[in-house]
Design brief:
mainly alpha
Length: 325
């Protein structure tokens, strides 16, 4: 082997080694925060099932539903990220199952925020009727409706997906990394997804905004509990922020796919991990941080559980009186 060929070989091996090292480092940077937030969300979910008061209070039941959907989304997002970072291409059936599960949980979060906003609106504007309107049964029916709407959305996407002529493909192996956008194979799929997404977030935004306005109007009444109204107003503002962050996550995959086509691998991984942490990971842990810190009933038990204590001694910490968010 000549000196020139040997130098070229060494250079190629060096570049491959640097690329592998960068991939490992970026994967660690992306995975560690996700694991931390998955642990926090998991602890929060356990906390909401550790006390009878949480199981018998509508807003905590709704919070559990929201956290469950966010946690599943976070886990799926991490899986999609690792598959794309490692350049692992799945088959269409496997990717289809994963994306349909992502579709299911993506719709549950904004719809649950809508129900939670309505619950706060009733609590402040109709406090005397709150206990008769917001019952455990009605809460369970609302959650069932949320899951039903989300499931019908997934079913519609599956039906649209079946129109694609998979039999004409030489192989079911995908030619790109798995993402929700890569499964929009038919011409009607993209139109439906855009229309449904716009409708969902416009509806959610209108409901949360109207609830906020109703709380502000009620706050001007002299007979209203000012402290409770202020907390409800702040909670609805946070719901608007959460809704906006959920909407921003829909642009992640199209943005990453566009960047992937024009940048080199190292630069792409650097930008991808920044967008991934800001757009995907942080919004999914926001609910745990908001309610875990602000709610005086959840906070001591959550901190206790985060310290890795055994569930058997969970009844020992002193829990303050229930507080309104």
């Amino acid at each position: 082997m000549s000196y020139a060929n040997q130098s070229q070989t060494n250079s190629t091996v060096g570049m491959q080694y640097q690329g592998l090292l960068a991939l490992v480092l970026f994967s660690i940077v992306a995975t560690v925060p996700c694991c931390v937030f998955l642990f926090i969300n998991g602890t929060m979910l356990f906390t909401l099932r550790s006390k009878t008061m949480f199981l018998e209070t509508s807003r905590y039941i709704l919070l559990f539903n929201l956290l469950f959907a966010d946690t599943v989304q976070m886990a799926l997002s991490q899986l999609f990220y690792m598959l794309s970072a490692c350049r692992i291409w799945l088959t269409y059936p496997v990717c289809g199952v994963l994306t349909m599960l992502a579709y299911l949980t993506n719709v549950i979060s904004p719809l649950t925020l809508v129900v939670m906003s309505m619950e706060r609106f009733v609590a402040v504007c109709y406090p005397l009727r709150h206990s008769t309107i917001i019952t455990i049964r009605n809460t369970e029916l609302a959650i069932f409706a949320v899951w039903t709407i989300s499931s019908l959305n997934v079913l519609t996407r599956v039906i649209l997906l079946l129109d694609f002529p998979f039999e004409d493909l030489k192989s079911l192996q995908m030619k790109d990394f798995c993402a929700t956008e890569t499964m929009l194979l038919g011409p009607m799929s993209g139109v439906y997804v855009a229309a449904f997404t716009y409708f969902l977030f416009v509806l959610a935004g209108v409901v949360v905004t109207c609830s906020y306005i109703g709380v502000i109007i009620t706050a001007r009444s002299a007979s209203t509990n000012k402290g409770s109204t202020q907390k409800a107003r702040n909670t609805l503002l946070l719901h608007l922020v959460q809704l906006g962050l959920s909407l921003s996550s829909t642009i992640y995959n199209p943005l990453v796919m566009a960047i992937y086509k024009v940048l080199d691998r190292i630069t792409f991984l650097q930008i991808q991990i920044f967008l991934y942490l800001c757009i995907i990971i942080f919004p999914k842990c926001l609910s745990s941080l908001i309610y875990g810190i602000r709610d005086q009933t959840i906070r001591p038990i959550l901190v206790y559980n985060l310290c890795c204590q055994w569930r058997g001694s969970l009844s020992h910490p002193v829990v303050p009186a229930k507080a309104k968010i």
